[in-house]
Specification:
This protein has 461 residues and is an alpha/beta fold. The protein has 16 helices and 15 strands. 47% of the residues are buried. Bound molecules: pyridoxal-5'-phosphate.
Length: 461
Amino acid sequence: MPLSNSQMRDVQSVLHPYTNLMKHRDTGPMILDHAKGIRVYDEQGKDYIEAMAGLWCTALGWGVDELADVAAAQMRKMAFAHIFGGRSHEPAIALAEKLKEISPFPAGKVFFANSGSEANDTQIKIMWYAANARGKTQKKKIISRNKAYHGVTLVAASLTGLPNNHKSFDLPFDFVKFADCPHYYRNAEAGESEAQFSARMAANLDALIQREGPDTIGAMIAEPVMGAGGVILPPQGYFDAITRVLSKYDIPLIDDEVITGFGRTGEWFGCSTYGFEPESMSIAKALSSSYLPISAVVLSPELSEIIEDESGRIGTFGHGFTYGGHPVSCAVALKAIEIYQERDIVGHVRHVAPAFARRLQKLRDHPLVGEASGVGLIGAVELVADKKTKTAFDPAKAVAATIGRFCEEEGLIVRPLMGDRIAFCPPLVITEAEIDELFDRFDRGLARGLDWVKGQGLLAP
Ligand SMILES: Cc1ncc(COP(=O)(O)O)c(C=O)c1O
């Protein structure tokens, strides 16, 4: 199809993130125009169920007037004020208080930034600053995991364990050390139970720490559920096993809740779902239901005290973003959290999660689906050429991406990920009837995918 006028304008002027820009010249963009509830509409008025809540983020769905009203009111009252040099304003104070109330750190402190990447960069700077404050100047290496996703700034991209974030960027930095990806379906040995697999992951982590030298490790960072790396759920006993190893060496755990925060897993935070206690957490995305950019690092009281003391010693905590604690973003985030509380969104997620899980599990019967798993309102399927042997498709055939396009034609936006996985992460306000509609559309896209895979001769005989 020839490109429309607006598609041509896009191709001529916009440099797109995470895009094969050469191909994009021919295919052009999908241009969305407006949105309501869990649906987005393109320029022709075609509706799509947004099964990814944008980028795992628009938790309250689209068209929430209260959020727009709060933003407009705050813009009129005071559109900008910074919080450098000890200045402050009510939206930042109130939001920090609210975050402490709902997070595992009721006596901690909150640092504001604008994106998940900035929050994670800040985490590492804080860990280094704290290590220096304690006189443990060697403790600078950071453990991340293969297939982790922590963002794209230089440090966050280094923490990310995905090749596309490193290739041609001269990354990752040396101080990042990668532990195993705890993907039971792919990485378990024959006959290994989930608990045994978790124990092996922990033993390998222990060996990695020993190899690097326990006194050189500043922290480990982990997502409760690995998102962009494939929606990989921690196997049974995993966090218990790895946190025991970390405590043995006094290594703090940074919890990246950028996707899992604010009810996604059926609890306020993924660390509650999986029962572990981090030293600090990064939050973003659903924090404002993505109506405006905002992220935060929430720190334990001990860690905040060390940072405060060190800033006193050297004269300042020399870190901060112009827009960190932006009053309009803070006001919107505060309102979003009030809505989560008033409408009991976490309770709603628990209520509809079984319907989501049922439809996901049903996909296991499909000839292309090797794994289907999820928690709360996040899940994924992995498409394979042979279910018995778990044989993957040739990545060059782009099976998941092709099925993603069929889904779009069926009015559904899903997210094809590496390893032919397809993710679902709908707005948390989705109803049971809408969950059925979502999976009905997916079934149709997948059925077309099966015909296409067979036509290409890609399915094992
Ligand atoms: C777990 C996690 N951490 C960090 C980030 C980076 O966030 P941002 O894109 O806002 O920089 C993401 C983005 O998807 C994420 O999923």
